[in-house]
Design brief:
The protein is an alpha/beta fold. The protein contains 35 helices and 33 strands. A hairpin with a 4-residue loop joins strand 27 and strand 28. The radius of gyration is 35 Å and the shape is elongated. The two termini are 47 Å apart.
Amino acid sequence: MVPPSITAIPGPGAAAAAAACTAAPCAAGRILHLLHTLPVQAVLLDVPADARLGGHPLTGLSSAVAGSSMAGSASVSGASSRRHSRASTHNAVLPTLAHAAPIITDAPAAAAAAATAAAGVKASALVAALGEIQAQQLRDQQHRARAANASANPPALRLLPTSASASTSSPAPGSGVSSAGATHGGSTSALNDSPDNASADPAAAAAAISPATPPTPRWALAPRRGHSALYAGIQSLAHKAAASPDACDAASAPTDPASTASAATGPFHESVYIGTLGPIVDSHGRIVEQYELSAADRAELADLLWREQRCIPVLVDDDTASKHYSGYCKSTLWPLFHYILWDGATDGRRELLDWAAYERVNLAFAQVAAEHYDPQGDLIWVHDYHLLLAPSLLRAELARVHGEETAHLAAIGLFIHTPFPSSEVFRCLPKRTPLLEGILGASLVGFQTYSYCRHFVSCCTRVLGLESSPTGIDFHGHHVAVGIFPIGIDAQRTEVKRRAPAVAEKAAALRDMYAGKRIVVGRDKLDQMRGVHQKLKAFGQFLETYPEWRGKVVLIQVTSPTTTGGQLVLPGDAGGGGGGGASIAASSGSGGSGGSAGIGGGLSAAKLEAKVSELVANINGKYGSLDFQPVHHIHRAIAPDEYYALLTAADAGLITSVRDGMNTTSHEFVVCQQEHMAPLILSEFTGTAGSLSGAMLVNPWDFAGVAAALHDALTIPREEKFARHHQMMDHVARYTAPQWARSFARALVGTRARLQSGAGGALDAHTTPYLHRERCLAEYRASVADLGGEDGALRPMRLILFDYDGTLSPIVKVPEMARPTPELLEALAALCADPANRVFVISGRDQATLDAWVGHIDGLGLSAEHGSFLKYPYDARGWLDLTEEHGDDPAVWKPEVVDIFNFYTERTPGSFIEHKRCSVTWHYRLADPSFGAFQARECQNHLENSTLSKRPLEILVGKKNLEVRPIAVNKGEIVKRLLATAAPPGARFEYVFCVGDDRTDEDMFRALHQSAAEAAAAVAAGSVDGGEGEAKADEVLLLGHQLDAAAPTTTAAPTASASASAATSPTTGEHGAARDRYHPRHAWTVTVGSSTKRTLADWHVQSPHHVVDVMREWAGLPRVASASGMAAGASPVPSPAFGRAASPTSALAGAEAEYEAEED
C-alpha cells in the first residue's frame, strides 16, 4: 500500500480556463473579504530624496534576489550571480552559530569572519570558553554585516504585472511591474500573476522602474509575505490561479494549474479585498517612514488597487492604526487568546485609548464595506481578531446605507484564525461584553477546531447569559450559527514547490554535509507562543538523558524575526477615525506582527531573542566539540527552496508551540516527507494536534517527555513510521486551504438562504418572518373603523395581550430587577387611554408584583401566575381566583413539590425558589449555566416520576426556571375567556394582537389558532350566509394552519389573509351567545426571539425593545432610539440592526409551507 500523495496537474488550457472564468460573471456572486491588511504591498517607485528608509529589505516582504534563485544569505549582486553549488547551499542555510543580525552577503567579509572564528577557536581549546568565543564572533559578524549592507545594493522587489504588460507603453514583459502609469486592458483577477515573473531578469526589472521609462509610474504593487493558506483558499473560490504570497515564498510566482484544479468543484465567487495598506515601501522593500499620502496618491492608489487586484483600501490615521494593531490587537487580544494574561499594573488610560482606536478602525471597515455592498448577492467574510466588532457595526451601517431590511438579510461571516480561549480566561478581558456582542452581529462564526468553538459558546452563555443550541447562539432575536472549518495548506501547490530541482539539490547537499548524523528540523516565528525556548530546553534534556545521541543528532532551528511596520502620516487626519467608502486608507502596520513585542506578562522580542541565543550557546558549549555543534540557529527569513529542502532532508520534525491556532508548518512537513516518511513531534496545544493523530503529541512544558518522544522518533520502526505518515498525509490531502474556503463559503450561502426564507421563502417551514410593522399598524388603525357606520353593528374594538418578562422587559438574572421603564409605562398608559382598546398583561408574576409595577395604570387588565388570577379593568371586584373553579387546592400538592425543589436548591449554588399562591418556581439563572441546566433536567425527571404522575399538575420549562402549576390553568384559557368576556356590551374585538416569548405563551398562540379553527368549522357548517361567508372561507382556512396542538410549527410566510378570520354576524338580542361564537377578523401572534425558534406564532421581533417601539408607534409617541433604554449596562457597540423582513409571499406559498410544516 502506497501512502497518498499529491500530483500536480499542469496543462496548457489552465490559463485559458482562468481567463474565461474571469471574463464571465461568477455564478455565486461576490464575497467581500475584510482583512486587516490587503494581500498586496503598495510600492513607491518615485521615492523623495529626503525620505527616510528603514527596515531590512527582506523583512516581511517578497523579494527577487538577483540571479540567485532565492539564495537567501548566499545571494550576491547581479554582476557576481552564480548557480548554487552544494557548498554554497550549506553556507546559505546553515550558519555555524546563532545570530540575530542580517547575514553577511559580502564574500570578503564572510571570509574574514571565518578567519576570525578559526583564530578564536585556536586561541583556546577549552570547550567551556566556547560561549564567550561565540559571543565575540557574534559582535564581529554584526559589525561586518552592517558595513556590508550599507554599501551593498539591496535586491529589488518582485512586483506584480499589469493586465497589459505586453503593451508598448507598459514596462518590459517579464519585468513584473504593476504600475498606475501603464496602459491597462482586459480582465483582472485578485492577486493575478504570471509564471514568467518567477525568473524575471533583474536588469529588466530595474530598467522597467527607472525614470527613463515613459511614462514614469509612481506606484506599483508587490505581493505581501505570509498567510499563504488564507490567500490560497480565498483565490480558489474564484476558480482561477492567482499570485498569492507564500508564507516562505519570497520571489516565486505561485500561479500554477494545481491551484485551479483544487477549486474545480465550486461554488465560484469573485473576491473583493477590503483592508489597510500597511507600510509603504520602496522598490527594494525598504519602509518609507513618515510618508505623507497626498490626495493624488490616494486617488492613484485607489484606482490601481481596484483595477488590478480588486482591492479597496481603508483609511485610518497613523496614530489610530498603531493603537489598534500594536496596542489593542497585539498587547491585549493576542496574548489573551493565547492564554497569556497581563501582569503589568496600569491606571487603564492607555488601554482605553487602545480600545477607542480599535472601535474606530472597526467602524472604518464597516463604513467602507457598507458603501461597496451590493444587496443583490454579495456575501461578507470578516477575518480574524483584528475586526471582532466589525460584524455588529457593519449591520448598523448597512441599515443606515441600504435600509433595515437589507441589514437583516445580509449574510455576514466571521472566521477567527487564532485560538479562542476558555470562558475562564476570556472573562478576564475588561471589554468582553462588547467584543462578544460584536462577534454575534455575524450570521456565521467559524473556528479552526471544536474546542475553540466550544469555548466561544461557553463565553456567550456564561458572560452574556444567552441561550445556546447545538447549531449556535440566539442573540437579539436572530440565530448566530457556529461551525468548525479546519484550515490546511494548498497541498498541490506545495507539492509543486517541493519537487523543484533547487529543493532536491539543496536537500541532497544537507544530507551529504551531515552524513552519519540525524537531522531534526524546527521552523517557528520567534515569539513567546511558538515555544522555541521550550524546544531548546527539551533538546538539551534529550542530549543529557540519551548520551548515545551526542554527536549524532543536529537540531536546525529556523526562526523568523518579528517585523516592524512603517509610519504613515495623513494630512489633516490627526486622531481622526476612518472615513467612509469614498476615502482611501493608508494604515500603518506598526508594531511586531509576531505578537511578542510589548505583550504584557511575556518576554519582549529582544529579551526572547537574547534568551534563545543564550540557550543555543549553552547547549553547543556543553554538548558540542571543536568540529561539531548540535544546534544550528538561523534567525532570519530563509528562501522557499531552502525551507522545503530542510523539511525534505529532516529525520524528524519538532514543533513545540505553547499555543497555536493552526500550525501549517506541520502540514508542509508531511507533504515534503512522502518518500522519507520522517515522524513529526507536535505540541498538543496546536490546532492541528486534534487532526494529525499520526503525529507524536507532546506537552512542550514536559521537557523529559519531549526528549523521550524525540528518542522514539529517531528509533521508530519503519512500519509504524509508514502508518503514522499515511494518516497524516490523508488528512493534509483532504483538508486543504481551497476546501476550507469552499466549505465556509457554502455555509455562508446556506445562512443567506435561511435568512431569506425567513423573509417570505418556503425553504424552512419553521422560520418565522419579522413582524410586518407597516401592515400591522395599518390594520391597527383600520380595524376600529370597520362596520362603524352600519346599523345594528357592534362597535369594533382591539384586544392587546402582552406577556411581561422577556416581552415587555428583558430577562434579568434577578427577577426583582425587571421593573418597567418609563418608556414602557408611557406606552401602556397611552394605549389604555384609547377607548377602542382593551389591554391586558398576562404574566407569570404574582399579584402583588403586577399591582406594584403596572397596577396604577387606568384601564389596564392583569392576569397573574399564568392565568391563575384575573383582574378586569374598571371592575370593582378586583382580583378573581380562577383556580377555585377547578377545585385545585395548592396546600395539598405544594409541600411535596417544595421538598423536591429544596433538595436541588441545596445542591445547586445560585438557585432559589419563588413561592406564589397557586404555583411554585425553581430558578437557576444565577447558577453555573451548564451545571444548572443539568440539575434542571434531573429535577424535572424527579418531579415527573414522583409527583406529576399522580396529580393534575404540569411543569413549565421556562428560561432558566421550572414552574409547577395546576394543569387546568394556563394563559391559553385566559385568552379564550377574554375573547368571550372582555369586550363591553355592544362591542366586539375586530383586532387581536398577542405577543410573548417563552413556552408558557405558546398556549396563547394555540388558543387564537383554535379560535380560527372554530371559525372555519362555523363557515363549513353554513352559519355564515351569502357571498360574505364564501369570500371569507379561504381566509379562515389559512389562519387555521395549526390545528394539532402536539406539533408546534408555524407557517413560513403568512399572507394578508392568513392573519384574518371570519367574523360571524350575531343575531340581534343574542349578544351573549354571539360573543361566545365570535372570532376576531385581524389576529396577530408575535414571539420575541429568533426567526428559527419553534413557535406557534406567525411573526417575530428580536427583543422587548422592539415590542415597546411598536406600542409607542401605535400610540403616536416618539420611538425609542436604542435598546439601551430597555436594559441597564448596554454595550456601547450598537446592537445588530436586524430590520424588517420582506413582504410575505402569496397565500398559496404560505399554504404549501404550512402543509410541509405539518408533515414534518
